[in-house]
Design a protein that fits this description.
The structure is a single chain. It is built from 17 helices and 12 strands. The chain is α+β, with helices and mostly antiparallel strands. Among the domains are: about 80 residues, Alpha-Beta Plaits (2-Layer Sandwich), CATH 3.30.70.20; about 140 residues, Globin-like; about 60 residues, no CATH class. It has a 4-stranded mixed beta sheet with strand order 4-2-1-11, with no helix packed on it. It has a 4-stranded mixed beta sheet with strand order 3-9-10-12, with no helix packed on it. Strands 5-6-7-8 form a 4-stranded antiparallel beta sheet, with helices on one face. Strand 9 and strand 10 form a beta hairpin. Helix 11 runs antiparallel to helix 12. The termini are far apart.
């Protein structure tokens, strides 16, 4: 545990008090302003999450452990190259191990671990990514605790996970209200652990996964048009992808291995920061690493080839699959488009005699042709028509207008499905395309999930025929 890691104090039947911890991040890796002494909610009832508002004093919150909780028991699973240690009693059920390495970790069968089911580097990565600290590994009979605990490589930080626990990294000390250490189960990590914030854990103060069962909701829903950064899962997801790329695929590739053989240990973090900023996230790369000029300098004189560029794109795409980044058509279209665009610029800038334009701004990437999440109905999901707003019919003798009578005919889903072509909530766009829209609503080919009622068609037709009033 690092001496400057700060600490978290677990108050009796009350909040967590954070002391001398500078980093409190949301689930996307964006900083949340925080002062030493701030109180974090752990009863699940605060209206000011993640901070405490005193609700615990009114809702009868208890910080006691449930006697029916999963008991502490550390199991060892020996494999050909590595032994995996696991204590189910402290698992927070994040699904990171079973979701990303299901040949080794099994959520629906016993034994939970088959330690010879994967490569050693994959197992080590999964163990180190376990947010609860329930997993460990050893080689030749010796546990590699310093490797599981990142050996001081991570700064102290608290992540407020989405609708889940506080994920603690960097060796932040955890103490009782009187300052004594909180008792830990055998094999627990003191470098990383997960603290309950839904108030329902059976193993308080640690998370036991109950937020899944009680359907804890603490995060605001994503907007209708999130940034690529938000949709990808933020910095944690991008870092998961770049780590897989540089730790798994690059070293074994004959083209890319030599190219990155001398990269710095934090290279995956740098690339994840770059992608995060390009995709609409915090300006982490600009403020910490030097921005666009720094990225350009890394390619000058490298004389990259088209073969290397194409391999980089292909393997990073495979890493995105392995890391569980969204696989929907909209995200992958934008993601793949950026990889192609950015890698071709890197190829150009790396050639002998290349002179990239100086002082260029950081690139910003967005959805392709306004194809955003929610812009279409999935062919694999149930088609649930969005309720249409009641018709705002014009008064006797009144000519219908776009703002008062016509705009409301189009639902949010209708707008999203057509934004690649024009905006159904914009007067100029609808006026320009009025004849085609009228034809399609009359023949029932628009909207896609069911024809308009006759009175809606009649109102739109009347608006068109009366002169398309704004």
């Amino acid at each position: 545990m690092s001496s400057g890691a700060g600490r978290i104090r677990v108050t009796h039947d009350g909040p967590y008090v954070i002391e001398n911890v500078e980093r409190l991040d949301d689930d996307l890796g964006r900083p949340i302003p925080v002062d030493s002494g701030a109180e974090l909610c752990r009863c699940g009832g605060s209206q000011n999450k993640p901070f405490c508002d005193g609700t615990h004093a009114r809702n009868g919150f208890s910080g006691a452990k449930d006697p029916k909780r999963v008991p502490y028991r550390r199991d060892a699973y020996e494999g050909v190259s590595v032994t995996v240690y696991d204590n189910r009693g402290i698992c927070q059920h994040s699904g990171l191990c079973t979701g990303h390495l299901n040949t080794v970790f099994h959520s629906d069968s016993e034994p939970f671990v088959t330690a010879s089911g994967g490569r050693m580097d994959e197992i080590v990565r999964a163990v180190r990514d376990c947010p609860s600290g329930a997993l460990g590994f050893g080689v030749d009979g010796h546990e590699a605790r310093e490797q599981v605990d990142w050996d001081g490589a991570r700064p102290p930080a608290i992540e407020v996970s989405r609708d889940g626990p506080y994920r603690i990294t960097g060796g932040i000390e955890l103490v009782e209200d009187d300052g004594s250490p909180v008792p830990r189960a055998l094999g627990s990590s003191e470098e990383h652990y997960a603290l309950c914030r839904c108030g329902q854990s059976q193993n308080k103060p640690f998370c036991s996964g109950m937020h899944w069962y009680v359907q804890f909701r603490a995060s605001a829903p994503r907007g209708a048009e999130p940034t690529l950064f938000e949709w990808a899962g933020g910095f944690p997801a991008l870092l998961r992808m770049t780590r897989i790329f540089y730790e798994k695929y690059v070293p074994q590739d004959p083209l890319l291995g030599p190219l990155f053989a001398e990269m710095s240990p934090d290279h995956p973090q740098r690339v994840a920061s770059w992608l995060g900023e390009v995709f609409g996230g915090p300006k982490e790369y600009s403020e910490r690493y030097g921005g666009y000029a720094r990225m350009i300098s890394q390619h000058l004189g490298k004389a990259l080839t088209e073969e290397k560029r194409a391999r980089w794109v292909a393997l990073l795409g495979q890493s995105a699959n392995d890391a569980g980044l969204p696989a929907d058509a909209e995200f992958r279209a934008a993601f793949s488009a950026y990889l192609e665009w950015g890698s071709r610029l890197a190829l150009e800038n790396s050639q002998p005699g290349a002179q990239p334009p100086p002082k260029m701004p950081m690139p910003r990437w967005w959805w392709v042709c306004d194809a955003t999440p929610g812009s279409r109905a999935s062919a694999l999901g149930p088609l649930e028509p969005e309720a249409a707003a009641p018709i705002a019919a014009p008064a006797q003798g009144e000519a219908p207008s776009f703002e008062r009578h016509v705009k409301g005919l189009f639902r949010e889903r209708d707008r999203q499905s057509m934004k690649f072509a024009f905006d159904l909530w914009a007067y100029d766009d609808v006026k320009k395309n009025a004849a085609e829209i009228l034809t399609r609503v009359r023949d029932g080919s628009m909207p896609c999930d069911g024809a308009w009622a006759p009175e809606r068609v009649a109102l739109f037709a009347r608006w068109v025929e009366s002169g398309l009033t704004p």
